[in-house]
Each structure stands twice: as C-alpha cells, then as structure tokens.
C-alpha cells in the first residue's frame, strides 16, 4: 500500500459498506483523527491514513511548510500535488484490498488533510462522494489547470472553521465557501468560537451531516 494506515472494520461488511477516509493535519499522525472512529456509525469502514513525510517524534506531514524571512510561511506546492496524487492512488489500492461501496467514499480532512481533500474533490471527483473539511481551505495552486467543475459539483461539502484560528485564519474558509456557493456547490458551513481544532459541537454537527448522507 502507498500509505500506512489504521483501520476500523464495520460490524458487517458488504458491497454496500460506506468508506470514510481520515486525513490528519501537519505534524500529526494517523492516530489523531482515528479517535473519532469509536463514536461513528458501526456500518462504516474507517481508514485513517498516515502522511508520508516523517518529521520525527511520531509527527508526519503531507507536504512541507517552509518559513522564510522574506516570503513568510509557504507550502511546498510540488510536494502537495504529489501527496494529492498519492491519496488518489491509495483510494484505488483500497478498492482492491477492502470490500466496500466504491461509490460511497467520504474524505474527512483536518487542516493540511482538509486542503488535500478539497484538491482530491476537484482533481479526482470520480473517486469520492463527499468531503468533510475541518479547519482547511481550497488552495487553487494544488489544482490542475483542466479541472472539471461540472463533475466536482456533484460532491457536497461540510466545512467548518474556528473563528479564533491562529494557524489558518477563518477568512480562508470564508473565501472558500464564497467561491463554492457562487459556483452552486452543495455546502454546509459552520463556524465555532475556537482556535485550530475540532470542538465537541463540531463533531456532533459533522457526524449528523455524515449519517444523513451515507
């Protein structure tokens, strides 16, 4: 497999089992979002993927974030594109390895994982059904120039962000939502009075959204 991962098997596996793929944030690991698994529906197959770049101390990144005195903080775009394509390959590998409904795949990403979830939706819309994007934003630099917006519009988005986020300002999420709504995407957007994280109410809200759509 292209990526290491944790797995929670569903109570009963069938060809109609929905798949939820969890993509953690920068400097975290597969165990982080996997803590959600015990609170999510038993009929879900849950895969928590671990990013490929080892930062040491059980910390991993999907792509590097550079800090420069002149340019400030910026993402390694070639690495981000490579990560996007790696996740797409990983989805195909899971189809060969696990039994589940190939037309019912949800991506749930936090921060860097959310940014990549957006990119998968726009560049590989045929691979997934829907996206839960927590504390992230749509980065157009990670998109191919020939994206098919018509296909991508079939994908609904649950988007949430903390109003006090010091890592990725809430303005980035608001800009993303404004673009998606202008293009007539199906968007459910929620803000929470918190920083860069997932509040208990946020979990309750996206869980309700997910259950209604799987």
Sum this structure up briefly:
The protein has 214 residues and is α/β, with parallel strands linked by helices. It has six helices and eleven strands.
Features:
single chain, 214 residues, alpha/beta, Rossmann fold, seven-stranded mixed sheet, two-stranded antiparallel sheet, 24% strand, globular
Protein described:
With 214 residues, this protein is of the alpha/beta class. The chain has one domain (5-213): 3-Layer(aba) Sandwich (Rossmann fold). Helices cover 32% and strands 24% of the residues. The chain has helices at 30-34, 77-97, 112-123, 149-152, 170-182, 200-213; strands at 5-8, 19-23, 45-49, 53-56, 59-61, 65-68, 72-75, 105-110, 130-134, 157-162, 187-192. The strands form 3 sheets. Strands 1-3-2-8-9-10-11 form a 7-stranded mixed beta sheet, with helices on both faces. A two-stranded antiparallel sheet has the order 4-5. Helix 4 links the parallel strand 9 (130-134) and strand 10 (157-162). Helix 2 packs across helix 3 (112-123). The model has no long low-confidence stretch (mean pLDDT 95).
């Amino acid at each position: 497999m292209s990526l290491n991962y944790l797995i929670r098997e569903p109570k009963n596996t069938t060809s109609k089992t929905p798949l939820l793929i969890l993509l953690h944030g920068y400097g975290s690991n597969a165990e982080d979002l996997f803590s959600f698994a015990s609170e999510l529906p038993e009929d879900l197959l849950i895969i928590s993927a671990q990013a490929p770049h080892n930062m040491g101390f059980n910390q991993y990144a999907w792509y590097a974030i550079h800090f420069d005195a002149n340019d400030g903080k910026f993402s390694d775009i070639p690495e981000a594109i490579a990560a996007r394509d790696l996740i797409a390959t990983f989805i195909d590998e899971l189809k060969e390895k696990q039994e589940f409904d190939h037309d019912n795949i949800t991506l749930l990403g936090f921060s860097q994982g959310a940014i990549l979830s957006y990119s998968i939706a726009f560049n590989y819309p045929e691979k997934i059904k829907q996206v839960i994007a927590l504390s992230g934003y749509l980065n157009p630099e990670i998109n191919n120039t020939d994206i098919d917006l018509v296909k991508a519009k079939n994908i609904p988005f649950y988007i949430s962000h903390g109003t006090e986020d010091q890592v990725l300002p809430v303005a980035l999420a608001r800009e993303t939502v404004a673009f998606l709504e202008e293009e007539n995407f199906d968007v459910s957007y929620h803000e929470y009075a918190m920083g860069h994280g997932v509040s208990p109410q946020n979990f309750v809200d996206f869980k309700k959204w997910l259950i209604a759509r799987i």
